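Two proteins were folded this term; both appear here.
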Amino acid sequence: MPVLANFKTITGSPYLVNYLVVGGGGGGGRSVAGVCGGGGGGGGFNEGTFTVSVGSIYSVVIGTGGTGQSTRGGLSSFGPNIALGGGGGTDTGSNSAQQDGGSGGAGFSTAGRAIISGQGNNSGPIVSFAADTVGGGGGAGSVGGTATGSVSGSGGSGKASSISGSSVTYAGGGGGGCVFGLTAGTGGSGGGGNGSDSLVGSSGTANTGGGGGGAGYLATSRAGGAGGSGIVIISYTGDQRGSGGTVTSASGNTIHSFTTDGTFTA
């Protein structure tokens, strides 16, 4: 009878892990023919607990940030636990389909929406379709600011998590752009990019899920800022049991951080 080589018996009980999944931030809106770009929405913020089975392999996906052409950020996931990408900030009324996401990207007549309850917030709309000033993208912690006359809306604040061993804020919304000579919106805490009054919007910070800032307008069209990529962090009590990602420890917990796609083996 043949001998089975490399046979391994997997033992151990399922165990509980904490997780944080943040989607990619939405891209800031570009400016077109005197119409400024709205702020991109922060990526979805999904934090909770999940029971893993020893020896099982769980896929980890890191959402990319949306481009500065009003595009939505990419979805992040850890196994079945997902966080949507942020909605792109719009550049024309016809881009309304790109406003929704983890947090909403700033639109025109209405605010972009957060699609999954608890993962983000709506954006701020503009005051009028003239769009000399526009709203800020929604953040995981608060709604995006509404444009008020000569001042564009700031990005909504992000949300803090201490899963990495220290408090870090993620998924801030991007600030709205404006016509030159007015005041652009600032990015929300948690990696949101600033809007501009005449140039390309600032990009969201990588691996925070921050939304990109909206573009300003001065004679020519400009691109919005790109959204920041997302992140996945997994933590559990005690010594290392799983593998995957960058492994650290803090306060008696083992922490697996993913900034690129990978797998977690429990």
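Next, the second protein.
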Amino acid sequence: MSGEALQSALDSAWHRESAAGSLERWQQVCDSEGWGAIPRNRDILVRVFGASWYFTRFVFYRGPAAARLIDEAVDSAPQEHPQPPDPAAAGIEERVEELRIFKNEAMLRLLVAWLDGRLGQAQAEAALTRLAESVLRNMLDLFVLAGGAGDLHAAVLGMGRLAGGEMNFGSDLDLIFLHDSPAGAQAGEMSKRVRALLRHIAAASPAGSLYEVDMRLRPHGTSGALITTSDSFKAYHAGTRDVWERQMMTRCRPVWDPERVGAQAMQSVLPHVYGRRPAAELRAEIRAMRLRVERELGRPQGKIDVKRGRGGIMDVDFISHYLQLLGGVEDPGFRNCSTREVLNRAAAAGTLPPEAAARLVDGYDWLKRVEACLRLFDMRSISAFSDQPGAIVPLARGMGFADDTQRFLDEYRQRTAALRVRFDEVLGA
């Protein structure tokens, strides 16, 4: 790669100083170790260094293996269904470490394709979700099923973005653990195994980490049992629940269900989630909850919240919740966990004008890319950025605005204002 091309890559790097420093150190390591000029696609290496400190550390940790992976990711399409290798290590810690390496290598491949423009936002989210499910299944095999635990009759429900196939870079896993075993020793054993899984899945090592897990969406929240019996789960959602809890359950599906415990629980619960209510009442409650979230959480001092703020991602989510809770009573096609799919279904059913649905999906995709750019540096689940133009140069570059942060902010405000207009049209001004 020519020096001119390399300099051009450095000039366009999101975090320019971080990319330049990391590239200099990489060249020093390559020289001292005798690796040569790797990877071949140094411009992509620079883009990774500039976008993510998390993956910069991973590249240095893996060395030539990461360099080969970057070149392979440039030369070929991302793996649609990545599968972890059969673990060669016998110990539990070693097997979890192999999973960390697998997960971060697979995610690095996706990041390269996403940075290179060969993977759109929706495609990236679908691939990130499949990767998370693969890792989760392997962790469950290691911890919950280890030693022969088929009599536990367990399942795991995915919530939120995991359920909808819309996980982003840095997304948590929102989970509910179910079991259908008699109370006593079996339930206690499962609880012990799940706690071990939660410790290991969030732990970090030089190879990086797997996922943070959020279990606050289980019945009764943090005050509820860690492991929920399927009978308790069904009884809870069969009772009188607030609309926000019904909204939450529109994003719930079994992600690990070897004995159909989760499928049977959801079959029992969905008629209550999609129970008939007057449209005006449903609309008013969903709108009130959205504005409450915006008022209490969407206005951080000196920052703009892309998820909870006015016209943010949640405006689109809440529109989809209303449309599917209204339409899902009669039409099973609305009982879908994906925000994008619900909007497309509404357009097909005539509930939403096709042009309005297309604009909502486009705005949703754009905001989810903003979210991805924010999270990539440290792979943390953050959703707010500074309202000062001078502090958001990396974000503007990631969104294709070069150093013109004011133009990015103008575009952001125009798009979120348009989404709020759509929100008001559907849910009432």
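The first helix runs from residue 3 to 12. The chain has a mean pLDDT of 92. These notes refer to the second protein only.
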